[in-house]
């Protein structure tokens, strides 16, 4: 059997996060008028430049592949955006590019695939990234575009563009909206509105404090033009300072939020991830290559796992994925200094804690805040929060961290990282 190589995380960058632009391009968030290709190219170039500054002997021509997570691969996110953005970023043409879709798992899946290739000796340097401008394309937009196109063309060309979505998908209710799934979980687990809101407020408080401590210093400036006007984006616009400055007053604000998913429910915008735009990138290397270049890694990737679960309520597959990743790493949850579950909704996170055996408000959980606080740009989230975990592990001189993410259709993914 061939020798397995150590895969280390060398460095990370991300864009600032912008609020959703669903109100319209003129009224939306700070990134809603940008091109996803340009945004991704910006973080890719910044990452290469950052590593080059640390290691002058680093040659980008040695980058084997650029793996990018992206859910809605349409419009400016189509045509293998990994390859297009890589070329726009000035990465040598010798680096390949692949775009990955595993719902919300996509960014971490890109990382895990690249890590496996390095471990197998199929390259020494990989870039992994994620991008999603949800202002342009919300969840399910790719299917909706097909259906809209079908409606526009069926009268003129009744047989030329047949719609081939399986009727069984609708009959069996395989895709119930995730917010409703979160309500199902909370009803089953007997969560209260205060349980969810308290966790959501805690996430927001941690993110505000992290920003104030300068922990988001891997944000790179992004400049673009819209209708002749230049725009510069340098700071997250999703943070809520009141969560840190007046926690109890903020809890009262959360209690007033409407219930979008169920009339007598408890899931609100205050205990769910924000719909946002963003991009991020990490560089992975073999341990040998990093040492050769004189780079000090943040950590190493020691185990990965995916798992399927019930398609409804679809948010609990990270539990078996995390158990498999921990087993493969030879670790237990008690060995983790950071536990980084993606905060798509708070209700499944409380069940993760109950079933994996840690406290619901364990200080190891998302120490710099999560998607409730910062947002969940689907394809980029796995990369953003993986980066946060790796950077914070180095910051606290910790031993190990566990990331886990739920995804549409009942898929889950996980990864374990450890100090080098």
Written account of the structure:
- The chain is an alpha+beta fold and 420 residues long.
- The chain is 36% helix and 20% strand.
- The chain has helices at residues 36-54, 81-88, 106-119, 141-153, 167-171, 178-189, 193-212, 242-245, 247-255, 287-292, 318-329, 346-356, 378-395, and strands at residues 7-14, 18-19, 63-69, 96-100, 125-133, 222-226, 229-233, 276-286, 299-308, 338-341, 400-407, 411-418.
- The strands form two sheets. Strands 1, 2, 3, 4, 5, 8, 9, 10, 11 and 12 form a ten-stranded mixed beta sheet that branches.
- A hairpin with a 3-residue loop joins strand 11 and strand 12 (411-418).
- Helix 6 crosses helix 12.
- The longest helix is centred in the middle third of the chain and has 20 residues, at 193-212.
- The protein is globular, with a radius of gyration of 21 Å.
- The model has no long low-confidence stretch (mean pLDDT 93).
- Backbone shape: globular
- Which radius of gyration do the C-alpha atoms yield? 21 Å
Mean pLDDT reading:
93
- How much of the sequence is in beta strands? 15-25%
Low-confidence stretches: none
Specify the number of helices.
Answer: 13
Q: H/E element string?
A: EEHEHEHEHHHHEEHHEHEHEHHEE
Cα end-to-end separation = 24 Å
Describe the largest sheet. 10 strands, mixed
Write the SSE topology.
Blueprint: E1 7-14, E2 18-19, H1 36-54, E3 63-69, H2 81-88, E4 96-100, H3 106-119, E5 125-133, H4 141-153, H5 167-171, H6 178-189, H7 193-212, E6 222-226, E7 229-233, H8 242-245, H9 247-255, E8 276-286, H10 287-292, E9 299-308, H11 318-329, E10 338-341, H12 346-356, H13 378-395, E11 400-407, E12 411-418
Parallel strand pairs: 3-4, 3-5, 10-11
Antiparallel strand pairs: 1-8, 1-9, 2-8, 5-8, 6-7, 9-12, 11-12
Helix pairs in contact: 1-2, 3-13, 6-12, 7-9
């Amino acid at each position: 059997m061939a020798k397995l190589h150590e895969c280390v995380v060398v460095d990370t960058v991300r864009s600032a996060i912008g609020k959703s632009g669903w109100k319209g391009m003129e009224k939306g968030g700070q990134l809603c008028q940008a091109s996803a290709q340009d945004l991704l190219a910006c973080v890719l170039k910044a990452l290469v430049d950052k590593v080059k500054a640390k290691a002058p002997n680093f040659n980008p021509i040695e980058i084997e592949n650029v793996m990018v997570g992206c859910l809605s691969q349409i419009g400016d996110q189509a045509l293998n955006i990994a390859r297009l953005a890589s070329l726009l970023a000035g990465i040598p043409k010798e680096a390949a590019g692949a775009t990955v879709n595993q719902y919300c798992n996509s960014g971490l899946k890109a990382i895990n695939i690249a890590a496996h290739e390095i471990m197998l000796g199929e390259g020494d340097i990989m870039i992994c990234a994620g991008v999603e401008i949800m202002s342009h394309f919300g969840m399910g937009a790719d299917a909706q575009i097909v259906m809209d196109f079908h409606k526009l063309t069926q009268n003129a060309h009744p047989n030329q563009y047949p719609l081939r979505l399986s009727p069984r998908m609708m009959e069996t209710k395989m895709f119930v909206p995730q917010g409703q799934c979160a309500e199902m979980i909370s009803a089953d687990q007997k969560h209260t509105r205060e349980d969810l809101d308290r966790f959501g407020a805690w996430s927001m408080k941690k993110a505000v404090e992290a920003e104030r401590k300068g922990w988001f210093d891997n944000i790179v400036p992004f400049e673009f033009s819209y209708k002749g006007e230049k725009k510069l984006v340098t700071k997250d616009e999703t943070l809520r300072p009141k969560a840190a400055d007046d926690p109890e007053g903020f809890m009262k604000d959360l209690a007033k939020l409407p219930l979008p998913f169920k009339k007598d429910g408890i899931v609100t915008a205050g205990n769910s991830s924000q719909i946002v735009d963003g991009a991020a990138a990490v560089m992975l290397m073999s341990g040998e290559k990093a040492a050769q270049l004189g780079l000090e890694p943040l950590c190493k990737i020691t185990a990965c796992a995916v798992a399927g679960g019930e398609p409804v309520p679809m948010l609990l597959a990270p539990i078996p994925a995390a158990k498999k990743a921990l087993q493969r790493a030879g670790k237990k949850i008690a060995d983790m200094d950071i536990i980084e579950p993606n905060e798509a909704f708070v209700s499944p996170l409380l069940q993760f804690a109950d079933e994996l055996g840690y406290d619901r408000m364990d200080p190891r959980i998302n120490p710099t805040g999560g998607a409730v606080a910062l947002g969940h740009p689907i394809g980029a989230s796995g990369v953003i929060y993986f980066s946060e975990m790796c950077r914070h592990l180095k910051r606290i001189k910790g031993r190990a961290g566990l990331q886990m993410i739920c995804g549409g259709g009942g898929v889950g993914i996980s990864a374990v990282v450890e100090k080098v």
